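Box 3.1 A note on notation
Throughout this textbook, protein chains are presented in two layers. The first layer is the amino acid sequence; the second is a token string describing backbone geometry. Keep the layers aligned when reading.
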Amino acid sequence: MDEFKLPSNIDPLGENQTRRFEFQRQITVRVGEIVKGKVLDILGPRQAVLAIPDGTFSAEVSERLQKNDELFFRVQSLEPTLVLKIHGVFAKFGDTSLSTAELIRILDLPSTKIINQIVEFLKSKNLLLLRDDILQFSNQIEKLMQEFPKANTNDFLTFVSFARELAVQPNKTLYNIYENIVQLPKFFELLVLFSIENPEFFSKRFIEKITLFRNFSSFRDVFLFFNPFVSEGEESLFGPLFGQLEQILSPSGKEKIELMNLLGLIKSSFESMEVVNSLALANYVNFLFFIFPIFVSKNYSFRLVKLYQRKDKNNKVIFEFEDSDEKVEPIGSENWDEGYFNRENEWAERYKKYITNLRKRIKRESNSIQITYGGNILRFQSNDIDFDSLRGVSIVI
């Protein structure tokens, strides 16, 4: 064991004390690697003794770190001294969750209102919080606030998170698309209510489908009906509903105008959902969005959900759905994961056909994505988040 004597000029107490640490002189970690470390002691401003996988070392670190802090570092340099950059921290250790203030301190982040909101938002969703990730999140929200000064910051939190899941940079175009698709479940609920109160405006086939939905009948039939891009002909919403648009192109009366407006919103929302699913496919994200007919607390409703395509232990393609905090039950008796989607070959064929149609709209050049839809060309940029800590870079624990 080496005896380490702390010079008084860097000792905050000026006591020239002798402290004992077991230092390992051979450093095997490389510049750029991510290492897990624990602060054993503070030597002075920006100097600390850290335990990392290679052993115990003195290193230059953030002055806001405290004894016993545990976090991940990125190795910045090895010579002439070991310099570690704060990379990330677990939001929870065992049963103990770190406070937002503690996370901000450990990650050496500015204590701004936006940063506080972002950390509070992310720690409820992610176990590991990354410093650079949070700073980029903050920059993206600040840019959006300049373009939409009257919008709510909480809306931006969910939107930026949505954009990052799609691996694209959030911008004004995507924000308008996002607002369209998140309102689609509400539009469908309004449509069902309108059809109950005004059945004379709808075809017999449409009313039959709505009745099936209200009676919690076949999940397959109702799901295909409300997801027209994976259905065909009369089993699709577009057949019995949008097929009658010609009959009401010259609306007269309050009800007809309301219906025309609602149909326009639904159609626009579906177009937006197609753009989003095209982006997900272009960036190799393993989920697509669909509308799920459900009932919550015995009441029928709709939800925009992510359908994940994965492989099980036998390398078989399976479909799974995001968990929900609410008590949600599917329409009909089928179980979502073991029923229609993973039992019937029909769904696999429909899904394959849908993917093929989406790919026809996608053109990718470097980090630019071009989506063609409805005669329009929309351009997006892939997100430039530094994800190399999660793939392609060693993480030493």
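The longest helix spans residues 254-282. Residues 94-167 form one domain.
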